[in-house]
């Protein structure tokens, strides 16, 4: 089944994310985590993609396991900046042969040791989307950035390029993490005004430790609101308290989104089924209302 068909249903959908192990040794641990997450009945589970090596191979393996063994929709991420066009084509062919129907098409970060752009590689995610479309009937998702992509000084350019990307054949968008819902509402207003009509899944990252916050900020350049910084300041040095407060903060963000009419939400569960479960427990009556 295609994710876009699920998103069109008139009900609330919560999806999760898992990242593959860096080495084959960690594979079983990730499978155990994903098996636990599947019991929470997410709308789909997405599997991130790393640059080259075991990580990229494992994305397809884990996405297959989710679909075939757990009978949950899977979304395989695919990046193109770190691979040649031929390597990317091979991965798309492999996903197709495994019967994976949903791909999140991404450029990925540009590897430090690579000349980029380079005619052997796809330059933007929109080029990758066009390539995937040649392989037939995939449902294609893509990324968007409520606070703007770090490489773009001007938000207006970001939205213009996002519109081009969606027009190249994107069925839905998932946002970068954000911690202030007003930023998301403002972004939605501007992209709808720009004529982007596809479903947008806000990406919610439960921050359960001070070190995770630091990594998230480095990765996304996101702004942490004063309310979040106060939590970190007070509870950051107490792991159990920070975990509880981080789960409560993410839950609160999700409840506000749902109360404001958002139907589809993606949680960056980061291989932590216990965190996914705690949030789903907090929402158990809310998602039925
Ligand atoms: C939901 C989500 C999931 C992610 N999953 C992964 C993952 O699994 N693995 C991973 O490595 N990374 C992942 N990332 C990170 C992502 O790869 C990086 O943010 C990357 O820097 C941009 O990827 P993109 O697909 O958004 O790129 P693009 O859409 O290609 O945009 C990249 C930049 O180019 C600009 N641009 C686009 N088109 C044009 C144009 N025609 N002319 C000029 N400028 C243009 C954009 O505005 C932007 O600044 C994810 C990000 C998100 C939000």
What can be said about this structure in brief?
The chain has 11 helices and 8 strands. The chain has 289 residues and is of the alpha/beta class. It has an 8-stranded parallel barrel, surrounded by 6 helices.
Descriptive tags:
single chain, 289 residues, alpha/beta, TIM Barrel, 8-stranded parallel β-barrel, 46% helix, 14% strand, binds flavin-adenine dinucleotide
How do the strands and helices of this protein lay out in sequence?
Layout: H1 3-7, E1 13-18, H2 27-38, E2 45-47, H3 53-68, E3 74-79, H4 85-97, E4 102-106, H5 125-133, E5 139-144, H6 155-167, E6 172-177, H7 181-193, E7 200-204, H8 210-220, H9 226-235, H10 239-259, E8 264-267, H11 273-282
Parallel strand pairs: 1-2, 1-8, 2-3, 3-4, 4-5, 5-6, 6-7, 7-8
The structure holds flavin-adenine dinucleotide.
Describe the structure.
With 289 residues, this protein is of the alpha/beta class. It has one domain (3-288): TIM Barrel (Alpha-Beta Barrel), CATH 3.20.20.220. The protein is built from eleven helices and eight strands. The chain has helices at residues 3-7, 27-38, 53-68, 85-97, 125-133, 155-167, 181-193, 210-220, 226-235, 239-259, 273-282; strands at residues 13-18, 45-47, 74-79, 102-106, 139-144, 172-177, 200-204, 264-267. It has an eight-stranded parallel β-barrel, surrounded by six helices. Helix 4 (85-97) links the parallel strand 3 and strand 4 (102-106). Helix 2 packs parallel to helix 3, helix 2 packs parallel to helix 11 and helix 9 (226-235) packs antiparallel against helix 10 (239-259). 42% of the residues are buried. The chain binds flavin-adenine dinucleotide. Residues 48-49, 77, 79, 106-109, 124-126, 143, 149, 151-152, 158, 161, 164-165, 174, 176, 203 line the site of flavin-adenine dinucleotide (FAD). The site of flavin-adenine dinucleotide has 22 residues, from strand 3, helix 5, helix 6 and strand 6.
